[in-house]
Amino acid sequence: MHNLFxxxxxxxxxLFTKADMLDAQMMEHLVNAGMNVEDAAMKAPEESVAxxxxxxxxxxxxxxxPPKGHVYFRGVxxxxxxxxxxxxx
Length: 89
Hints:
By secondary structure, the chain is an alpha+beta fold.
């Protein structure tokens, strides 16, 4: 019996949903550190991605089978259906 894992190549793609929640946490952090609300709102998305990549994404890409890429979703209020094509050898 063949092991399906060795017969097919499946790209790993990581979807980070609710990235806007990280933005809200970062905005609160920036305001608590003394930044005004308007500036914190502008800076938070960039800073939350940087912090996430430093604390989590680097570890993810060091795994034995790292993802081919990752995507951040913000403000998603409805369901999405994703399909991946499996290319078998």
